[in-house]
Request: fold
Amino acid sequence: EAQVTQNPRYLITVTGKKLTVTCSQNMNHEYMSWYRQDPGLGLRQIYYSMNVEVTDKGDVPEGYKVSRKEKRNFPLILESPSPNQTSLYFCASSPRQGDDEQYFGPGTRLTVT
Amino acid sequence: AQSVTQLGSHVSVSEGALVLLRCNYSSSVPPYLFWYVQYPNQGLQLLLKYTSAATLVKGINGFEAEFKKSETSFHLTKPSAHMSDAAEYFCAVSDGGGYQKVTFGIGTKLQVIP
Reply:
């Protein structure tokens, strides 16, 4: 089944404790992206990747890192999480970008205390 | 820079009534436009997209949207609301082809009243 998977789905952590949210797609898509969803703010793009080893900042990259060492994986890294990073995170992929539909993962709900 | 404005963060309609969700965009180049739907506790899925072909775009579940360049609008409509349409709807814009950013609106929560 074609899909985007994220792990974990739920995570509660403490300020400053490094964490990684994994994202994997099995559709051989070139383009992958991370978003955070907050009430009243919609989806805001954190980082995106156009292909292996090619990444770029979205609208809200501060406090986040990404890597794209393999085409299928695009992990999101929070090296020192803070409470303002409490949010719902979505990973998405598409064959390329522009006019292509994005396929979204199920989301990761992160709480930082 | 591109942007999307969704008027009305919450919209309520009666079952069987017309659904109209508004989206206005700004873009320096001819845009690609999308509507996504998010059901509770799920990710987003594509309803429909405009990519410079026909200006009236038909999507899944009976939804359609019309691209109006003069009004920079891409409003989503459905003639008759169903209870299962209750969800959050997001309009998104992308500046052309290639590897460009996608910008989402803040979303509109649709409530369908029996």
